[in-house]
Specification:
Its main location: cytoplasm. By secondary structure, this protein is α/β, with parallel strands linked by helices. It folds into 2 domains: 147 residues, 3-Layer(aba) Sandwich (Rossmann fold); 107 residues, Dihydrodipicolinate Reductase, domain 2 (2-Layer Sandwich). The chain is 34% helix and 23% strand. Strands 3-2-1-4-5-6-12 form a 7-stranded parallel β-sheet, sandwiched between helices. A 5-stranded mixed β-sheet has the order 8-9-7-10-11. Helix 1 crosses helix 8 and helix 5 packs parallel to helix 6. The chain is elongated, with a radius of gyration of 19 Å. The model has no long low-confidence stretch (mean pLDDT 96). It binds nicotinamide-adenine-dinucleotide.
Length: 269
């Protein structure tokens, strides 16, 4: 068997960080090489496996230079400002990167695209196999129902989520726009309040719900006269995102540069 892939987990004390650590610990093809979190994080200096009752030999650090030394791939589920700093360091050390963080600006996405000329990156707002399939189905549905149908993207997440609409909802909106032969920025409607007037044809609407511990629900509605099609995905555990991200890390093992998404990882293109 080849040497296990040396993985660094960023945001290791977060909700996704936990799921990723569990995923790495239970995969013989992967080895935990580094664990990163903010300087003020309470787990700093402790063994990254402590919360799972195991000794990994890897301490949680905030110093990216320490964490990335001799690493193969960084898996990042944090916040955009952290991801941008990690991206710069990954380029410096030629470490591949899986970016699962959401909420990036257009400019930040352009920086990620440019960085992929130097290092291999998988960037996807949703790493689950089911959502990756849903993206394809939505594009196909929008292409077929491209006249006389109104498209709305509805999502619900837990009360702690800080960005809206979710990165996945935006990605589904992009897929729908692609199916319609449009650019999402020209047809998205992110908010409605008061006397909005009738719905304009060709727009893609978004609705956001937040509450409780919902891991992630997404529905794309294509509503016509006399019928509507609803395409839904419901995540019941973060393990689905973590397993997808770690599968993406293995996919990058043989890539030197380039920007990929989960459709590449799953061979759905
Ligand atoms: P969380 O708040 O539980 O964890 C975030 C982690 O990042 C924490 O460990 C926190 O300390 C760390 N962090 C925050 N700001 C930082 C900074 N400035 N520098 C360094 N570390 C910092 O959040 P979560 O639920 O784990 O989600 C993390 C991100 O992943 C969010 O953007 C979320 O939308 C995204 N997400 C993506 C997918 C996907 O499949 N792509 C799935 C779930 C969540």
């Amino acid at each position: 068997m080849a040497n296990p892939l040396k993985v660094v987990i960023a945001g290791c004390s977060g909700r996704m960080g936990h799921a990723l650590l569990e995923g790495v610990f239970s995969d013989v093809e992967l080895v935990l090489h580094g664990a990163l979190d903010r300087a003020e994080n309470v787990h700093l200096g402790r063994d990254a496996g402590e919360q799972f009752g195991r000794v990994s030999g890897v301490r949680v650090v905030s110093d990216i230079d320490v964490a990335l030394k001799d690493a193969d791939v960084l898996v990042d589920f944090t916040r955009p400002e952290a991801s941008m700093a990690y991206l710069a360091a990954c380029q410096k050390y030629k470490v591949k990167m899986i970016i699962g963080t959401t909420g990036f600006s257009v400019e930040e996405k352009q920086v990620i695209e440019a960085a992929a000329k130097n290092i291999a990156i998988v960037f996807a707002p949703n790493m689950s196999v089911g959502v990756t399939l849903l993206i394809n189905l939505v594009e196909q549905a929008a292409r077929v129902l491209n006249e006389g149908y109104d498209i709305e993207v509805v999502e619900m997440h837990h009360r702690y989520k800080v960005d809206a609409p979710s990165g996945t909802a935006l990605r589904l909106g992009e897929a729908a726009a692609q199916g319609l032969g449009q650019d999402l920025k020209d047809c998205a409607v992110y908010a409605r309040e008061g006397v909005t007037g009738e719905r304009e044809a060709g727009k893609i609407g978004f609705a956001t719900m937040r509450g409780g511990d919902v891991v992630g629900d997404h529905t794309v509605v294509l509503a016509g006269i006399g019928e509507r099609v609803e395409l839904t995905h419901k995540a019941s555990s973060r393990a689905t995102f973590a397993l997808g991200a770690l599968r993406a890390a293995k996919y990058l093992a043989v890539k030197d540069s380039g920007l990929y998404d989960m459709r590449d990882v799953l061979g759905l293109r």
